[in-house]
Write a structure and sequence with these properties.
By secondary structure, this protein is α+β, with helices and mostly antiparallel strands. The protein contains 2 helices and 5 strands, in the order E-H-E-E-H-E-E.
Length: 69
């Protein structure tokens, strides 16, 4: 599974960081960025993505097909 954060959508709520602090972090501009998506389970990545109030966390399968949102 691939994970990315759309910085044009992210508002820095940091819900993803709260759910998966080893997978996400806030950068110097206070926007979420993927740190190490392999450090957590796919279930945790889904929970982190679903916790984002603006759906900035994007999940894709290994072929690049968008799974969420």
């Amino acid at each position: 599974m691939k994970v990315r954060v759309d910085k044009n959508v992210c508002i820095g709520a940091s819900n993803c960081v709260a759910v998966a602090p080893t997978a996400f972090k806030l950068d110097d501009s206070h926007f979420a960025t993927v740190q190490d998506a392999n450090s957590v389970s796919e279930a945790t990545l889904w929970e982190a993505a679903e916790s984002c109030p603006v759906e900035a966390v994007i999940l894709e399968d290994d072929s690049g097909n968008q799974l969420y949102p």
